[in-house]
Structure formats: C-alpha cells, structure tokens
Amino acid sequence: MTLRAPKREALVPQIIEQLRAQISSGEWPVGTRIPTEPDLVAALGVGRNTVREAVRALVHSGVLERRQGSGTYVTARHELTGVVARRMEAAELAESIEVRRAFEVEAARLAAHRRTNRDLRELDAALEAREAAWASGVAADFVEADAALHMLIVRAAHNSMLAELYASFHEALLASLRGQIGDDLTPEAYVDHSELVDAIRAGDSVRAAGAAGAFLEL
Questions:
Q1: What is the pLDDT of residues 43-73, one digit of tens each?
Q2: Fewer CB within 10 Å of terminal CB in the chain, N or C?
Q3: What is the DSSP string of the chain?
C-alpha cells in the first residue's frame, strides 16, 4: 500500500481522502476488498476509531460496502457513482436513455471537433475489440467492450467535467446493461458503431451526433 501517516489535526478527513485516493486511482479496484482494519491502522499510524469512522463515511457515501463475515469492498470509484447508481435503480428506463443521450450525443459532436490522432487510434482499437467481443458470443465481454468505446468517445470530447460526470453515470449504466442483456447475445441487440467512429474521424459533428443518437431512440 502507498498510504502514509497523516498529520495530527483533522485526522478523519485526512484518512477519508487517503482511502478515497486509493480507490479513485484504481489502486483498490471496484469489486475488491480493502485491507482489514488492523492493516489500515498499522499502515496509517492512527487509532481504530479514526479508521472506523473514515470507512463508515465512505460506506455511507456508497463508495464502500461492508459484507458480514467477509470484509469491506469497493463498490464505486467516486461518491457520485454511488449516488447515481441509487438514483438509476429508481429511474424508468426511458429516463436513463434520455440522460445517456444528453451525454453521448453532445460528446460525439465535440469529439468530431476535438479528437486527436491518438484518440482516433484508440477509437479504432476499441471498435475492433467491440466487434471481437460480439463475435465471441460472451455477453459480459461485449458489454465491457461497448462501454469502453463509449467512454473513449466521451474522453475524445476533451471536456474533463463531461468525462467525470459520464464516468459516474456510466458505471451505474454498465451494471444496468449487464442485467438487461443477461448471458446471451441476440441479433437484435447488435448496433453497428462504425458510422459513429467514421463521423468523428471525418470531423463531421452533425453526422457524429446523429449516429450517437440513432441507437438511443426511445
């Protein structure tokens, strides 16, 4: 672990920030168990109550989850992800699609203007990986590959706030899509994304926005 002993003042907020950094950086990936309380106490050089309170705060915010008899696990990389996930559970499918359109259509439009050569190389690789995942017939792999492509499109818009907000929404959306698609890929679930990538490559913002919105019609 790369944790360090905090300053004496305001211990709990400092511990929260350190734990949050471990999670947001990917040092503790979503789905993994964080170190035990004794290990955290030893690494941070603080008391059990301080560690317990910091962990409790992150559990309350939806970033961590305590599992009886198993430990504490990472459930989201950011607090906003936990909030969005809870909101999506209560949302109608139509609402989720409308929010996704708001993100992805604008991201595609901006990406057509701002994409770099590196962005295009990454999009080509992601599109190829998506096709390969579909051909494999493994639903979980396809959902992951599809999500990776859309995330790269948003990043190609080069708007850090948009990317951060979309990442929080997209983690919750990904969980929802896994449930919707299930274990089997069916022909009607396939949507060709080559037109979207081609429009971004061509710098055609109107065509890119249209392609992004076409497969998100209600």
A1: 999 999 999 999 999 988 878 889 888 899 9
A2: C
A3: ----PPPSTTHHHHHHHHHHHHHHTTSS-TTPBPPPHHHHHHHHT--HHHHHHHHHHHHHTTSEEEETTTEEEE--SSHHHHHHHHHHHHS-HHHHHHHHHHHHHHHHHHHHHH--HHHHHHHHHHHHHHHHHHHHT-HHHHHHHHHHHHHHHHHHT--HHHHHHHHHHHHHHHHHHHHHHTT---GGG----HHHHHHHHHT-HHHHHHHHHHTT--
Place of tokens 């559970």: 89
**Distance from CA of residue 188 to its chain's centroid?**
25
